[in-house]
Amino acid sequence: MKYHIVTYGCQMNLHESEKIAGILREKGYRESAPLEEADIIVFNTCCIRENAENHAFGNIGSLKKLKRAKKDLLIAVGGCMVQEAGKAELLKEKFPFIDILFGTHNLSELADLIVRKRLQKKAVLSVSDERKEIEDGISPVRTSYPNAWVNITYGCNNFCSYCIVPYVRGRERSRRKEDIISEVKQLIAEGYKEITLLGQNVNSYRDGETAFPALLDEVASIKGNFRLRFMTSHPKDFSAELVAVMKKHTNICRVLHLPAQSGSNRILELMNRRYTREKYLENVKYLKSEIPDAELTTDLIVGFPTETEEDFEDTLSLVREADFASAFTFIYSPRKGTRAAEMEGQIPEEVSKERIVKLIELVNAQTREKSGKYVGHTAEILCEGYDEKKKLYLGRDTYGRMGYFASETNPIGEFVTLKITRASGISLYGERI
Ligand code: SAH
Ligand code: SF4
Ligand code: F3S
After folding, report:
1. What's the gap between Cα 209 and its chain centre?
2. What residues contact 313, with CB distance under 8 A and at least 6 apart?
3. DSSP 8-state class, residue 347
């Protein structure tokens, strides 16, 4: 019996798909296989923007034929989209061939749902409102060696006015510190070389007396040859303690992903982000004064309701002033049930498209300029894979920059020093030394 998992969305979902694979293995499904050969296909969905949903809808729809030809095939759909108000019912109606629908709080029930489905003809559906306890105890089938994801928090309490995550992931819960530490120790013992601590807002982690900087300090102090990343940090919770811990441990990667969303104070206020442009830039300055080589990456949204040309110009100037190494850029997508979706002054798509093109141009120019500076220098990367098209190995340096190189032996999982000979966009090319 074989499984196939299709994942959309963020790292959180990628890691959750590893847990889904863990559940399926326990249930007797032995290996991951191409879609056509699978006995169960699981879609782990995302609803952060409309296009993420459209992708999933299209791909689930295209399975109708396969399901008709293969009567015993099970199709399960889970994740954030299923948790959205009314979406599970809509999916069921539109795609009657779906066998199992499970919400974000129902992941651990998947094995039971498979059993239930075998006993009944109609689809089984399990979408709970909220789950307070943390789902420890599922062993994930990790797919990203030498990197490993470790959850530290679940859910989000921030309610940024555009964002659906708090509605589909529930209230914030922190995992127990002891559980996190023992998971990381185990991963390092197994040979993982990069640990990424995951949460929608890692900075608000709290277990009793332990806040995020103390947790980070403890994880970074674990003995072993590994690197540590964490995401995502919310600018409102940026602290001197966090910077001090980063400075103390050189195994913490020298890049901070700090989503700014906008450079305009008026828009930040409407977004309910709870910081100003000035405060954001002050934090950037502090980080760079303490750790001069630290890089910043960010997320930016254009076309938020009422955004004027002037607001947009403020975002462009923030990109320059904060000197971002790279950025994920998005066109605002109204999400039903969020406050921003009800706001007056929704921006026409043509305007947002024009703005995002300009923003991407600026971000890319900055990225290229920074990449160019690597040429002639060395970079230490952790080799994480092989690019079949380029016929080169690849890996990231501490700043998150991707480096490509040739190697006679398989260096996946090794730290490799490259002499950079060429830079192209965000990527570096070099020779192993
Ligand atoms: N918790 C993280 C990640 C949230 S989702 C954080 O707070 O940074 C990742 C990114 O998607 C967000 O940072 C935001 O830039 C973007 N995003 C969220 N909702 C969106 C929406 N409705 N339209 C467009 N982009 C959105
Ligand atoms: Fe969404 Fe804001 Fe929470 Fe991030 S912090 S998940 S953007 S509500
Ligand atoms: Fe998407 Fe859910 Fe992540 S909405 S971005 S998969 S938390």
Report:
1. 27
2. none
3. P
Atom of ligand 2 nearest to the CA of 200: 6
What CATH number does residue 84 fall under?
3.40.50.12160
Pocket, ligand 3, Cβ cutoff 6 A: 9-10, 12-13, 46-48, 80, 165, 168-169
Range(s) of the domain holding residue 397? 378-432
Distance of CA 286 to the CA centre of its chain: 26
Whole-number Å distance, alpha carbon 47 to ligand 3 midpoint, is: 6
Q: Is 8 left (phi over 0), alpha (psi -120 to 50) or beta?
A: beta
- Take residue 278 and report the two structure tokens written for it: 């000035």
The DSSP bridge partners found for residue 44 are 7, 78
Q: What mean pLDDT value characterizes the chain?
A: 96
Domain count, the chain: 3
Does one domain contain both 217 and 92? no
Q: Which atom of ligand 3 is nearest to the CA of 52?
A: 1
In the chain, the N- to C-terminal Cα span, in Å, equals: 45
How much of the chain is in helix, strand and coil states, percent to nearest 5?
A: 40, 25, 35
- Does the residue 134 lie in any domain? no
- Do 319 and 207 fall within a single domain? yes
Mapped onto helix, strand or coil, the DSSP state of residue 173 is: strand
Judge if 198 and 326 occupy the same domain.
yes
| Ligand 2 atom closest to Cα of residue 273 | 2
Burial of 99 (0-12, 13-18, 19+ CB in 10 A): buried
Give the residue, out of 5, 11, 45, 48, with the most ligand 3 atoms within 8 A of its beta carbon, to mutate for a pocket test: 48
Ligand 3 center from residue 314 Cα (angstroms): 28
pLDDT in tens, 232-285: 999 999 999 999 999 999 999 999 999 999 999 999 999 999 999 999 999 999
Q: What is the pLDDT of residues 146-174, one digit of tens each?
A: 999 999 999 999 999 999 999 999 999 99
Nearest CA to ligand 1 atom 15: 299
Asked if residue 257 has its Cβ within 6 Å of ligand 1, the reply is no
- Show the tokens assigned to 43: 């879609």
**Ligand 1 pocket, residue 230 CB under 6 Å:** no
